Amino acid sequence: MAHVLILGGRSDIGLAFAHICAHNGHEVCLAARRPERLADDVRDIATRYQVHAETREFDAEDSGGHADWFNQLDQTPDIVLYAAGYLGDVEQATKDNAELERIMQVNARGAMTILEAAVRAMEHRGSGTIIGISSVAGERGRKSNYHYGAAKAALTTFLSGLRNRLSGTGIHVITVKPGFVATRMLQGMQTPAALTATPERCAADMYRAVQRGRDVVYSTWHWRYVMAVIRNIPERLFKKMSI
Predict the structure, then answer these.
(1) Which listed residue, of 13, 45, 155, 213, carries a Cα 20 to 30 Å from 21's Cα?
(2) At residue 192, does pLDDT exceed 90?
(3) In this structure, what CATH number is given to the domain that contains residue 61?
């Protein structure tokens, strides 16, 4: 039985992953800025799967306190998922540095500081799994979300470097790159049905990656090929496109 810590536990994907882990007999801790809003979810998980489930308060924007926060946990988790995310408002971010800072902090810097704390504990033990939810948006900048895309690109690079550094240590690092996922973050947006996953589908892809030792996961798998095409569009053409 593994102990699973989900940072950003109120996210749709994080909750879906908690259900899959609990279904497979693992203890789960849902960490979020407003953990009281997860009380019903925790009771449901504990009752439905007969496992221990709990909540903790966690602020992705409090990078300065992340090391102490992690060190105060009752035990070092076997699996740590960083599922916190903030799409933000691209128009506001062009005018308001506070909005730009929040996009970068939640999606990149906060992930780096808390995951480094997790890795230090896992290195001491010699085992563990780190999962970071990045995005296909980080593979090429687009005017509709380039601040968010830049933050996710930073997270992708961080996870790749972490995986390289930890190779052979017993710690597995997984980068998850969802495309469109039908979550609250995309509520009201029109997305192509064939390329839009449910949170449950994304969570299942992540859990398979843990079981199979995969390093990079696209969810759904179609995005691996979609992004291969998008990455190879010449910049002189790409800058004129609206995709």
Answers:
(1) 155
(2) no
(3) 3.40.50.720
